[in-house]
Design goal:
The protein has 936 residues and is of the alpha+beta class. The chain contains 27 helices and 32 strands.
């Protein structure tokens, strides 16, 4: 093995390690607060009809309770509003305790009759993100659970007509799948809140059932958008801490004009502002509180159940999850009369107001005249650390120095971590003569108010971000000499997910005094994925500049809003971060790495066959795997084909041949509407395909090296249990035994699980590799020891007669370099084959795990994604056990078989990035002819 090859693959795996480290650990620490139960939680099982219990024995429905509430609800005489929690992939029904406990505590603190009954579904912790065969079954059980829940309220005068669903991970996808059921009444569910649910596409498509399920859900919600317009859906992504489901996948695929669908990231949720990992999004106290507060505001006071008004639901969700303007629109008054004494009024003639309230309570109003400011300024900016709901007014009638009639303008207030902010456009205030800012603190609590007139154009700067290939060597910087309270920096050309930057903000002030904290906000105009950083002044702050979604039209970039302190200087520098770029590439293109790993191993197998065809000997495994990196033979044809498919005539030829469309990774654009014949395709993943090929080849190279090491260690452990062998046929099977084992494994696959029989066949082949490894070691030791036993003549010559006797027995050679070389050739061949045969076993592992977990309920996996190809693969595995280099070199099919890997790898890259399960089909197409070479 050449040192250059090892260095290259070492560098490639180093890049992969850097990207994985950034993906898994390169984020902020978990700033979520834990939710605690103050009493022991109880989960009371809800009895379901016998038919339902018989059809779904592994599932269950429970009511959450604790303390006195759990005792009161033992008879299931319920009077609250029903909420149903749906766990996700491998999720426990007990995850509902955070939502249930916080809702119960808030209901007790309100000392009213409003409360919620939190139900939870037990899906047996199934791996539905990797095995899609259970998704439809879960959907049907969810339907039955909803009907059973509503029956518990039949004794009420005004029973609830619908259930609110809260779905985590795949539970949110199952909730939306309810509407695909033919007998589902859409009025049973009118509000769905999903947490870290991959709505756009599955994270990994390891079986066709998963993609079929997603296709049915997408088609239903897109084709019947008018019918489902009254169904309100809120999707919350976890942010960068969630490396299992990237937040771009949580975007709801809906029409842009649908007002009842919201998609956002937890970092943008008011009073939350934190990133959560895939599990903590369930118990994150800040997010759970926002959800529970929204639930209480959604209650209709007359029915004491959830409102059915779509406008009311959207107003509440916008209030708690988007802007949080201190109070909702329905609570605000159009006009307000202010009748305080003239001493409480002060007119502000300066450009800026900075006011701290005294410790003594007082009434205070500041008046800003609009007439002299309309031409010179475009906006009015004001921020306050008070908790007043109404604090900025537009004066429409003035009497002397005070305003007697004003319009409340506070509804556009936006809540930031340290204070609330209001930005008013002067062009929208044509009927207002003065602006009134209230600084009253009748309760004696101190706070600060800062306001100023702004000319937005003069406080907006632009800076082009460095190119992604600058590797951090170039810096784009801009200096802001703050003369105001808000400055906006447009990060030009920053609109793609593969871009990643380190943004440093250094603040310095000439005069040190008490100031409000600064807020640096990275605002993404096309998606609600804003991130906020609160700092003091002076400070040095680093902001992670990465995106969850791309701008579809590349028309604008990200905005960096600096809520600053006046008379301070801010230096902003932007530098490309290579580790974060690699992390983003793996986050969005990670499924391509196993595809290129399979490509490398299959090309290595083809190289091994070519070596056997030309020289009759097998090459070293590390050598052929090292040569499996052939981007000029794989990526170049794929790129040419992609260009040809842009031509109409080639598309027609493609459709005439009934070929499926080229696979593409899930798009990074938000809120896309998918149609059957329109699949959005991004170009940048194709341009990065050589890099992904390098990473996949590095996995194949070092993975094969680890496989060789493991085989050597296991063979050392098993060697004392086996008699030493010197034959290349060790570990082979007789024809009758092959037929018996193949038939038994096929029956086992039909009766139980195809992945189980496939794994068993793989173990038989692995045993063949271990026996070859032990034989190679035995022969090596024997040949090393044999020369020491030969007697040497006095002149130093070897006794030829003795040497021949040691090599032959009845005319057949026993110990020779030729026999050792034959065993080594077979060992290298089978090591290469075992690396390829490992891939179908790994891709079928989720279905095997699902079968094992459900074994007590059913001994047969239904549906079985491995069954269509399990029997052919078992036959191939068993035939390859007896394969050796002599049989292959004498086979007439070897020239054809050695040519198949290259076209199959090209087809694999074209058709498998999204459909990962197709990798097994292409491997079977290559291994089938190879197994035939053992017979012909």
């Amino acid at each position: 093995m050449k040192l250059a090859t090892v260095a290259f693959y070492g560098f490639s795996v180093g890049l992969l390690a850097v990207g994985l480290r950034e993906l898994l650990t390169g984020f902020e620490e978990n700033r979520c607060s834990m939710t605690y139960m103050f009493e022991y939680p109880e989960y009371r099982r809800v009895a379901l009809p016998r038919r339902v219990a018989r059809l779904y024995p592994a599932y269950g429905l429970y009511l959450y309770g604790e303390g006195l509430y759990a005792q009161e609800t033992r008879a299931l005489k319920l009077t609250g509003a029903p909420v149903l929690f749906l766990p996700g992939n491998a999720g426990s029904y007990k995850q509902a305790r955070s939502l249930g406990s916080v809702a119960l505590r808030k209901a007790e603190n309100m000392e009213g009759t409003l409360h919620f009954n939190v139900f939870t579904v037990d899906f047996n912790e199934e791996l539905v993100a990797l095995y899609g065969g259970s998704l439809l079954r879960q959907t049907h059980f969810l339907h039955e659970s909803i009907k059973a829940i509503l029956k518990l309220y039949k004794h009420l005068k005004t029973p609830p007509q619908s259930v609110v669903l809260v779905g985590h991970s795949m539970g949110g996808v199952v909730a939306r799948a309810l509407y695909t059921l033919p007998r589902f009444n859409t009025n049973l569910v009118s509000l769905i809140i999903t947490q870290a649910s991959p709505h756009l596409a599955p994270v990994l498509a390891l079986d066709p059932y998963l993609l079929d399920f997603y296709s049915a859900v997408r088609q239903k919600w897109v084709s019947q958008v008018t019918k489902l317009r009254n169904v309100t859906v809120l999707s919350v992504g976890g942010g960068y801490r969630d490396y299992q489901v990237r937040s771009g996948l949580t975007s709801l695929p809906c029409t842009p004009g649908d007002p009842n669908k919201l998609s956002l990231v937890a970092t943008a949720v008011p009073r939350t502002w934190v990133s959560t990992d895939h599990l903590s999004i369930v118990w994150c106290k800040e997010l759970v509180l926002a959800t529970v507060r929204a639930f209480f505001d959604l209650i209709d006071p007359e029915t004491r159940q959830f409102t059915e008004n779509p406008e009311k639901k959207m107003a509440v969700l916008n209030h708690h999850f988007i802007r949080h303007p201190v109070r909702m629109l329905g609570e605000a008054q159009d006009t307000i009369s202010i009748l305080d004494s003239p001493e409480a009024w002060s007119e502000v003639n300066t450009l800026r107001l900075s006011y701290s309230t005294p410790k003594e309570g007082q009434v205070k109003y500041f008046l800003f005249a609009l007439s002299s400011r309309r031409k010179a300024y475009s906006h009015f900016y004001c921020r306050s650390s008070s908790l007043m709901t109404s604090w900025v007014y537009g004066c429409v009638h003035r009497n002397g120095s005070s305003c007697v009639h004003a319009v409340d303008l506070s509804m556009d207030t936006e809540l930031l971590p340290p204070y609330k902010v209001l930005i008013l456009s002067l062009s929208d205030l044509s009927s207002v003569t003065h602006l009134v800012v209230s600084a009253s603190n009748l309760n004696g609590k101190q706070f600060m108010v800062e306001c100023e007139w702004q000319r937005q154009e003069s406080q907006t700067l632009s800076v082009p971000v460095p190119h992604v290939l600058s590797f951090g060597l170039t810096v784009s910087d801009v200096t802001v000499n703050s003369s105001g309270l808000l400055h906006t920096i447009v990060l030009q050309h920053f609109h793609q997910v593969y871009q990643a930057f380190r943004i440093n903000v250094v603040s310095q002030c000439k005069v040190h005094k008490d100031r409000l904290s600064n807020v640096y906000r990275m605002k993404v105009p096309w998606f609600r994925e804003d991130s906020l950083t609160t700092v003091s002044v002076p400070s040095v702050t680093e902001i992670s500049g990465m995106l969850h979604t791309s701008r579809p039209d590349n028309s604008s970039g990200v905005l960096l809003q600096l809520h600053t302190a006046p008379n301070c200087q801010y230096k902003v520098s932007v530098r490309t971060s290579l580790p974060r770029v690699l992390g983003q590439i793996l986050r969005f293109c990670g499924p391509m790495v196993p595809v290129y790993t399979a490509v490398t191993l299959l090309l290595a197998c083809g190289g091994q066959l070519s070596s056997i065809q030309t020289s009759g000997r097998a090459a070293d495994m590390s050598q052929v795997v090292g040569k499996g990196l052939q981007p000029h033979k794989v990526n170049l044809p794929v790129f040419i084909l992609h260009i040809l498919l842009s031509c109409s005539w080639f598309k027609q030829v493609w459709s005439i041949l009934f070929l499926p469309p080229m696979d593409a990774l899930p798009p990074s654009f938000p809120d896309l509407t998918f149609h059957e014949d329109v699949v959005p395709v991004e170009e940048w993943p194709r341009l990065l395909s050589p890099l992904l090929y390098f990473l996949g080849a590095a996995v194949a190279f070092w993975g094969s090296a680890i496989l060789r090491l493991i085989m050597r260690l296991i063979s050392l452990i098993l060697a004392p249990l086996h008699r030493p062998s010197v034959s290349r046929d060790c570990g082979t099977l007789q024809l009758r035994t092959q037929l018996l084992i193949t038939l038994s494994l096929a029956v086992l696959g039909v009766a139980s699980c195809g992945a189980l029989s496939l794994f068993a066949a793989f173990l038989f082949h692995l045993y063949r590799v271990l026996r070859l490894q032990m034989t190679e070691r035995s022969l090596s030791h024997m040949l090393n020891l044999a020369p020491r036993k030969h007697r040497e003549a006095e002149n130093g010559a070897v006794d030829v007669e003795t040497l021949n006797k040691s090599k032959e027995c009845n005319g057949a050679p026993l110990l020779s370099e030729c026999a050792l070389q034959e065993v080594r050739d077979d060992l290298q061949l089978h090591l290469c084959l075992s690396a390829v045969l490992t891939l179908p076993v790994m891709l079928s592992a989720p279905s095997l795990l699902h079968w094992i977990r459900n074994l007590r309920y059913s001994t047969q996996l239904d549906p079985d994604p491995c069954w269509p190809h399990a029997v052919p693969l078992i036959i191939v595995y068993m035939l390859l056990i007896n394969c050796n280099t002599v049989k292959l070199s004498n086979s007439k099919l070897l020239p054809l078989t050695s040519c198949l890997p290259l076209p199959l790898t090209i087809a694999m890259v074209i058709f498998s990035p999204l459909h990962l399960y197709r990798v097994t089909y292409f491997l079977l197409a290559a291994l089938g002819p190879l197994a035939s070479c053992c017979l012909l």
